[in-house]
Specification:
Number of strands: 0
Helix content: over 70%
Number of helices: 11
Structural class: mainly alpha
């Protein structure tokens, strides 16, 4: 039993690394791109919040103020983190977008596999291979190109990451009332909620998920 568990961990780790490698190969060309100075990057990325550094006043402003109709504090913290380390070097901003997408692809694998296993009609081998295929298609699908290649659109892969993470925990921890797991759920819920206004859809997903689980 222990050997089989080790094999499963190895397989999952291997497919996760392989999916990330596929993402990096597909998006390699964007690393030589710069900022789109006339297409939102000049105010979404290069703004007063990013340039003001890690001061308490700036952090308070990020979480309490909107900027040109946008309220995405985690996105701004993402820009602030990169600017603090590398300045306005577009390579690192593109790299972070790709890293967020890698996280989404890996979580997509876990989400699809878990959903198929919860159905009870599909064995683990089939669910594993289907999850591999779906996450691979998600990794390379052209619909994601804009949100990954465009620095100002990093909010989309970030939003997707927290959405997938919350749903994965939702299905993986049903019925588990241990305090630490409830804390994980609460943290992910809060991060997802302040990530983007579209986070309100999470409540609907939770309701539908519970109906599917208990049907």
């Amino acid at each position: 039993m222990k050997d089989w568990k080790n094999i499963r961990i190895w397989r999952i780790s291997a497919i996760s690394l392989l999916l990330c490698l596929v993402v990096f190969i597909c998006y390699m060309p964007i690393f030589s791109n710069g900022f789109l100075d006339s297409w939102d990057d000049q105010w979404m990325v290069m703004n007063v919040y990013t340039g003001s550094g890690w001061t308490w006043e700036n952090l308070l402003a990020i979480f309490t103020q909107s900027h040109k109709g946008q309220y995405s504090p985690l996105v701004e913290l993402n820009y602030l983190f990169l600017y603090g380390l590398f300045g306005y070097n577009p390579f690192w901003f593109h790299l972070m977008s790709v890293v967020w997408h890698c996280g989404c692809v890996v979580l997509c694998f876990f989400l699809v596999r878990r959903l198929l296993e919860l159905s009870g009609d599909i064995n683990r081998s089939i669910s594993f291979h289907v999850a591999c295929l779906v996450s691979f298609l998600f990794a390379i699908h052209p619909v994601n190109v804009e949100s990954v290649a465009w620095i100002s659109a990093v909010k989309v892969p970030m939003y997707t990451f927290f959405l997938f993470a919350r749903i994965v925990f939702l299905f993986a921890l049903y019925g588990n009332t241990k305090n630490k797991f409830l804390c994980y759920k609460l943290v992910l819920f809060c991060l997802f909620g302040i990530k983007q206004g579209a986070g309100v859809c999470l409540s609907t997903i939770i309701v539908v998920g519970r109906l599917v689980h208990f049907a």
